[in-house]
Design brief:
Length: 353
């Protein structure tokens, strides 16, 4: 890497961090003012709430900060005539764009990778703290179907991964075969471990002299492989999202049941691909920004390009919400706009080479 590219990267990261921290503080500050009356009395819970809101804010602040940082970096270089100096010694425009695009792509890759973890549930945790003064919130009376099994949970805690009052009805050829009842259970190693289990076997045909119901008791019983608690909980709580890992599992689960997977696909596309609008937009905006302040009002231009960045993000955010609700196919709402944005950015990049 050349010296001028290192210089650009250092300045870009410095601007990115300043803007990112400023937006984070603004987002969390406004949220705290809005929910001040509803905050729990405990200082520890309040601190946890702030931490989760900071993590939740990253979903909005990091992509925008990466674009804003590019705008600030370039305008700083224009004002100091550094950009003109670079071009005058034969440095190509693409050589200046490349480090900005690379750093932004690395940050967006890390951001997308975070969605494979519990980072995704920061908003849910913060709302649970606000409403119930606890991270975990149990769901009640869940009735679900998995292949030939009908499952009932009296209560389910998706964070602690345990449940109470479990009943599993196994059906084959529209005929009930057995009923599994358990006082409680927990999810471990991709399967549910049930405790204090009663298994009732029903014979296929009942006649005079036939054996009746057969009961077997178990202290421990394994069932429901890959039936993840978070997937079950989010079936009933559509206000929250899933981590990318849980979303893949949910897609496999719902697809096997021939259930609509639009929302699941929208979650996967939003978390894996949508953040990369930022580096693509950086290439486009950089190309149209001037190289000198002689004929342009830089303050006005910076305002215009900031609005363009916000408008682009706003449109993509709106499309993601519409695809979550099933109004628009996620492939049309998310993949198509990103594909068009990629085509424009590549055309601009190779045109400048």
């Amino acid at each position: 890497m050349k010296i001028f590219q290192r210089y650009i990267i250092v300045n870009y990261i410095k601007n990115l961090l300043i803007i990112f921290i400023s937006l984070e503080l603004f987002y969390v500050g406004v949220d705290l003012l809005s929910n001040f009356k509803d905050l729990p009395d405990s200082a520890n819970i309040q601190l946890l709430y702030v931490v989760f809101k900071i993590l939740d804010a990253i979903n909005y602040t990091l992509p925008l900060s990466s674009v804003f940082a590019m705008i600030v970096t370039k305008f700083t270089m224009i004002k100091s005539n550094e950009l003109v100096s670079m071009y005058s010694v034969g440095i190509r425009k693409n050589s200046v764009i490349a480090p900005l695009f690379l750093v932004a792509s690395i940050f967006m890759s890390i951001f997308a990778a975070l969605h494979f973890t519990s980072f995704t549930y920061a908003n849910e945790y913060s709302q649970n703290l606000l409403r119930y003064s606890t991270i975990s919130n149990s769901s009640s009376n869940l009735f679900l179907k998995d292949k030939d099994q009908y499952i009932y949970f009296k209560t389910l805690d998706p964070i602690k991964k345990n449940a109470q009052g479990i009943k599993i009805f196994e059906v084959k050829d529209n005929d009930l075969e057995k009923i599994i009842s358990a006082d409680n259970g927990y999810f471990f190693n991709n399967r549910w471990i049930l405790k204090n289990v009663q298994v009732l076997y029903k014979p296929k045909a009942l006649g005079i002299g036939d054996t009746g119901l057969k009961e077997i008791l178990h202290d421990r019983y394994e069932a429901l492989e890959n039936f993840r608690p978070k997937i079950m909980d989010n079936i009933f709580k559509s206000e929250y999202t899933l981590s990318t890992l849980d979303a893949f599992d949910a897609y496999i689960f719902f697809n096997a049941q021939d259930i609509n997977t639009k929302r699941i696909r929208a979650i996967i596309y939003t978390q894996m691909f949508l953040p990369f609008f930022a580096p693509l937009l950086i290439i486009i905006l950089f190309h149209f920004l001037p190289i000198s302040s002689r004929f342009f009002n830089l303050t006005f231009l910076s305002f215009i390009f900031t609005l363009i960045a916000l408008f682009t993000w706003g449109i993509l955010f709106l499309l993601s919400k519409l695809s979550y609700g099933g109004v628009i196919l996620p492939e049309i709402a998310l993949i198509l706009p990103l594909f068009i944005l990629a085509l424009i950015s590549f055309r601009v990049y190779f045109k400048s080479s």
